Amino acid sequence: MNVSSAVVRARGLVRTHGRGPGRVRAVDEVDLEVPQGQTLAVMGPSGCGKSTLLHLLGGLERPTGGEVWMDGRRIDTLSERALARMRRRSVGFVFQAFHLVEELTAAENVELPALLAGRSRRQARRRASLLLERVGLADRARHLPSRLSGGQRQRVAVARALVNDPLVVFADEPTGNLDTAATLDVLRIFEDLRAAGQTLVIVTHDERVAATADRLISMRDGMFVDDTRLAGTGTGTGTGTGTGTGTGWLGGLGGLIGLEG
């Protein structure tokens, strides 16, 4: 891959926890490149390091070793202030537990990152209104999170992640707390984002989520064990350490769900 096309890039990425005999390598010498517009799904058993990887790539944690680059700029060596500024302007996050501010309405939750990034209140309000309409929640804009269902709260979280037009959206188990109907609502939004060219990196246990991706990486014990282009999806390619062929259950992922309607 042409390195200049990579929105996110990691080289020799390592993250360890603990010391001595109990030391754990949560992420173990990982190399990764994610090109513009690719939807990448990362799957693996609990404790394999996939959420830690997401936090490292998004600047929420610092690596023990290796490098993390975003849009051609190395970020793991930035100061805390510069790293926070980068996250506000270049990255959107969606979490399993939503992490909405309970005292703020849906619209105010979406506006908040825009205000922190320096947009005027009018600009933030207009952007939040457009995004809530996009995720089908224009009529819930003034509701507090406590008056929203789990699926609605997650859609607010997606809108919040998009408010600053991020280079990349990182989603950590975005459907983990949702029922089937709410999961399909979120998947439709991700499919729309993928079609619009938004770069997405999604950590998931859910094969329905993985089926919407261009590429699937499987992790185990902090390492990549398979890196597969999913048939019938987008144009992203990318390279990694795996040698998967896309056969077996991987080849059938695309037929697991239908997002039409």
Features:
single chain, 261 residues, alpha/beta, Rossmann fold, 30% helix, globular
Task: Please describe what this structure looks like.
- With 261 residues, this protein is an alpha/beta fold.
- It has one domain: 3-Layer(aba) Sandwich (Rossmann fold), CATH 3.40.50.
- 30% of the residues lie in helices and 25% in strands.
- The protein contains seven helices and ten strands.
- The protein has helices spanning 50-57, 80-90, 106-116, 121-134, 150-162, 180-195, 207-210, and strands at 6-17, 24-35, 39-43, 65-70, 73-74, 91-95, 168-172, 199-203, 215-220, 223-229.
- The strands form two sheets. The protein has a six-stranded mixed beta sheet with strand order 6-7-8-3-9-10, with helices on both faces.
- A hairpin with a 2-residue loop joins strand 4 (65-70) and strand 5 (73-74).
- The two termini are 36 Å apart.
- Residues 233-261 have low confidence and may be disordered.
Spans of at least 5 consecutive residues with low confidence: 233-261
Please identify which CATH superfamily we are dealing with. P-loop containing nucleotide triphosphate hydrolases
- So what's the CATH class? Alpha Beta
C-alpha geometry: globular
Which second-level CATH architecture applies? Answer: 3-Layer(aba) Sandwich
Structural class: alpha/beta
CATH fold call = Rossmann fold
**Average pLDDT score:** 87
Helix fraction by DSSP (H/I, runs of at least 4): 25-40%
Alpha-carbon distance between the two ends: 36 Å
* Domains (count): 1
Query: How are the strands of the largest sheet arranged?
Result: 6-7-8-3-9-10
Count of helix runs: 7
The share of residues in extended strands comes to 15-25%
- Mind telling me the C-alpha Rg? 18 Å
Let me know the number of strands: 10
- The SSE string, one letter per element, is EEEHEEHEHHHEHEHEE
